Fold this protein.
Amino acid sequence: MALTLTPALCAVLLRPAAERSATRSRLGRFFARFNQGFRAATERYLGAAGRVIDRPRTFFAAFGVVLALLFVLMRVVPSGFIPSEDKGYFAMLVELPDDASRQRTEGVVSGIEGFLKQQPAINHVVSLVGLNFIQNANQTNAAIIFVNMKPWDERTSRRDQIDAVLGAVNGYLFGMRNARGFAFNLPEIIGLGTNAGLEMNLQDRGVNDVKRFAALVNDFTRDANGSPDLRGVYSTIRVNTPQLYVHVDREKAKALGVSLTDLFQTLQAFLSTLYINDFNLYGKTYRVQAEAQPKYRQSPEDIGRLYVRGGGAGGGAGANQPMVPVSALTRTEFQSGPSVLTRFNGFTSALVIGAPAPGKSSGQMLDAVERLAQSKYAGQGVGYAFSGQSYQERASGGQGGLVFGLGLVMVFLVLAAQYESWSIPFAVLLGVPFGTLGALLGVWLRGMPNDVYVQIGLIVVVGLAAKNAILIVEFANELRAQGRSIREAALEAGRERLRPILMTSFAFILGVAPLLTSSGAGAASRHSIGTGVFFGMLAATTVGIFFIPLFFVVIRSLSERGLLRRAPEAATARPVAPAPAQGD
């Protein structure tokens, strides 16, 4: 489409110089002054580029400083994975003491709902009492609350954004005396863990005692909350849940002829639930479960109301067998123990969740918990392993540099094929560090991490910075082939290609500028990729164009001297043996 319409547009818009001067309008006078000013700016650019070419040692030293700053920024800018987005909703986990009933949990949740409905940024609240969302377990003392926020266009102030709302809600939850809770953002990728922050599994690798292990986990969460890199660190392990343990006198049951299977099924059916079967009704499947009514299983003494059939004097089966009270065969004892015991990679584990502190990245958060676990708790038999989004961040660590390096190799191979030279592509690739430095500098100045979207932006900057260099190097090669000197060819190429370089570069820079201040859904990812691309192209355009002619002059001079190319072939070619004749 562009190749078809461009000639027609040129015929309509472009006019001869004499005709333009005769019919010059106000807009034409503006363009004339603009072209006059641009020509003056071009001459100043050529003068600066010429001075750079005349002082190669000085400006190669300056280029070394650029590389050093780039290396420092790569070490200073914190790492990240996926920025936490304002998705318009978040979740809350609430836990009461281990012996809390469902009715007590509902009362606490009602109070929390009242607080949430008073917040101007919150729209709807949905609560599920009796479900521990993190451990995926049914517990009467736990509840999960899903909070739906108002649309983004109604939440314009900073205090109505999700980070501020989470901070206010967590402040209210941490101040509760009858319960503990934690509000968290859900993961950015659905199914990748349970929250968008820390997901660490502490493992019992040598403690061999669940209560002592739980005490170490609580010490770990307390130390982690004291770290400046984390906030709201929370563990799900609970080992003080009241439990009623039933001791069965197996010898007595055997003496009375009572089947242990019947005894355990009786206890299960009346004190808990016993699955019977399924049946279909009106196109739906229903489950049949046997259980005693609540008033008959309120206390340990209710076990005395249960009976199991014994073997009888004759030892045969039938209705004449005596009924033996279950209380005669059992003894009850109250104990405390874990409500849910989980394993991770075969080890008894405790899930620890949390979030990075304000101004800290997820990479800094993971580094902090790793240092804490290795320095203080590894010697006590506590190991760790990440899961969910934290695991993916650690698994992909260092791969961004590999992808960036492969991108540079691909650009080099394409340019080598285009120029049919192994040396000239270096004049193009040496302009890439300016864009990379600008991108990382912009990310660092805005206090952002080097996450996946920034790394994608770096790949974009590589291509666009190489494009600017290609425009100069390509034309300089053609002028050199026409007999111009290397220095003259480089400066003339800069003169002819400066306008298209600035036009395309600033059109792109202004095009991505709205990403820097975007809001609404997906704003965090747009900030990451927009910041890297904007500042990267700004540096590559305003600084890199002064160095590209220098790189071309130096590399082309070395290439023509034979230092960066293969030795020329011998003047006398080696005789080639004639091919054997084909035929019978």
Q: What stands out?
A: The first helix runs from residue 2 to 13. The mean pLDDT is 84. The longest strand covers residues 137-149. The chain has four domains: 45-79+398-560, 86-186, 197-235+343-396, 241-313+320-337.
